TrEMBL record:
Keyword 4Fe-4S: no
Region described as Disordered: 1-33
Subcellular location: Membrane
Organism, as annotated: Streptacidiphilus alkalitolerans
Name recorded for this polypeptide: O-antigen ligase family protein
């Protein structure tokens, strides 16, 4: 007997309970079986690992060599673990003759992207050098989205991943807001006030992307709670979305502002037109009060907003460089129209096709790092990057995938709205996230720590387009037959 054992007292023995017919008593649960139980829970609900992939994006990775062929982050490692887990579950289900794989349409569309990049890599001037690009595109646009598609089964899985996006956004938004308020951010307009979160000055777009994802996730969760009559939860999610506006503003990312505005508008219009109008009025009034009245963001945000309307007529230096990179990508494609020059080959062909005024790189500093010159290794436009490196073959495959995801997800939201008079908020979150990504691809491409989140968004959209996701109520599980 030890101090942890209860005191022994004399008790009258209770009569034995009659044994239940046809049902055996469950075996006692041992503490040694806890790791096995944890693994079993993970196998039954791999969406928990998908949520971990999202949260690991926030782990700082320090200064990175942008010229390196491959950047491996903790989120990348977790995403490959998700691929392995879902692949093992799918293989086991096939071997046992039960369980479902991805829909045929999804297999064809994702397979088309794989074939397109494989053809471009084989036709490359140096296939061995294009191998890293082939692996990266396969990971981001094929393997991880399919694993996400397999890991999502019901509204709870969907809510878990959207909650992880919101959590990551709140973390990065808090760090970014502190950087702006204390002047410890990245270099911008003569100061160090640009909010970049934990990603550093070499990846100034990353924080704005994470915050935008979280804002759209919070909007969808708020609409879902509102439709379910949970007013307190809806208010909490709405306040979280409002809190993310400030760090998004001080990221000074014009592209993220445009993409977020377009995504919110599309999500609200498909969900509730009257709510969209009220939201537009409220946002305008809040912007006037916060920026004009209280001076939040000051002249920097106002100047950045006004520059959006002048990029066509009198663009600043960063915008003119981007225009020149787009011209360069178009010229490369004209010389290699069918299969492009191969993945990761754009930098090798850039100087031979670029205008003379194109800068050799962009200056970065601040957020704990010294001055550095970042080379321009891509056209900063995903569609033009695919066109120049994979030609018409690759662009056709990507266009088919993106359009199928967009129209499929929108169709599910509209179908739910027609059936109930109001679409579910989770479907609005999916269409909003996909809209943001497609608009973002107009001025950015893959690269950096947050690249794996592109896979998460595509997987969520695939779930919405092909498997009738959170826009529909989950069906009740079929009870197992009782033992005789």
């Amino acid at each position: 007997m030890t101090l942890l054992d209860p005191p022994q007292t004399a008790r009258t023995p209770l009569p034995a309970r009659p044994a239940q017919v046809g049902r055996a008593a469950p075996p006692p649960r041992s503490r040694r079986a806890a790791p096995r139980d944890l693994l079993g829970d993970l196998l039954r609900r791999p969406s928990a690992l998908a949520a971990l992939v999202v949260l690991l994006v926030c782990v700082p990775t320090g200064d990175k060599d942008v010229t390196a062929a491959v950047h491996i982050t903790p989120a990348d490692v977790a995403s490959l673990g998700l691929v392995a887990l879902c692949g093992w579950r799918a293989a086991t289900a096939v071997a046992r003759g039960r369980g479902r794989l991805i829909p045929t349409r999804a297999a064809l569309l994702f397979g088309g992207v794989l074939v397109g990049v494989a053809v471009a890599a084989i036709a490359s001037r140096d296939p061995s050098e294009s191998l890293s690009g082939f692996i990266r595109i396969t990971q981001v646009f094929v393997l991880v989205p399919i694993a996400m598609l397999l890991s999502l089964r019901d509204r709870r899985d969907l809510g878990l991943v959207l909650g992880a996006l919101l959590g990551a956004a709140l973390i990065e938004g808090a760090v970014g807001a502190a950087q702006y308020l204390t002047g410890t951010g990245a270099s911008y307009d003569g100061g160090t006030v640009r909010a970049v979160g934990t990603f550093g000055a070499s990846d100034v777009m990353a924080m704005s992307a994470v915050v935008s994802y979280g804002l759209l996730a919070a909007l969808g969760l708020a609409l879902e709670a509102r439709a379910a009559g949970r007013s307190r939860a809806a208010l909490g999610y709405a306040l979280a979305a409002g809190a993310l506006v400030m760090p998004l503003a001080v990221s000074f990312s014009r592209g993220s502002w445009i993409a977020t505005g377009a995504a919110v508008l599309v999500a609200l219009l498909l969900t509730d037109v009257r709510l969209a109008l009220r939201g537009a009025l409220f946002t305008t009034a809040a912007a006037v009060v916060l920026v004009g009245g209280l001076g939040l963001g000051g002249a920097s945000v106002t100047a950045r907003l006004s520059s959006i309307t002048t990029v066509a007529g009198a663009p600043d230096h960063s915008v003119s460089d981007r225009y020149d990179l787009w011209t360069t990508a178009a010229r490369i494609w004209q010389d290699h129209p069918v299969t492009g020059v191969g993945p990761k080959e754009f930098p090798n062909y850039r100087d031979a096709h670029a205008p003379l005024r194109l800068s050799s790189g962009s200056d970065t500093a601040g957020a704990g790092a010294g001055f550095a010159r970042e080379p321009l290794l891509s056209p900063h436009n995903m569609y033009l990057l695919v066109l120049s490196e994979q030609g018409l073959v690759g662009l056709t495959a990507f266009a088919a995938l993106f359009l199928a995801l967009l129209f499929g997800t929108a169709r599910q939201v509209l179908r739910e709205r027609a059936g109930r008079g109001r679409a579910a908020g989770l479907g609005a979150a999916l269409i909003g996230l996909l809209t943001w990504q497609l608009v973002d691809f107009l001025y950015a491409d893959i690269g950096g720590t947050t690249t794996v989140l592109v896979s998460v968004v595509l997987g969520l959209a695939g779930y919405g387009a092909f498997t009738a996701p959170g826009t529909r109520a989950p069906t009740a599980p079929v009870p197992e037959a009782a033992a005789p």
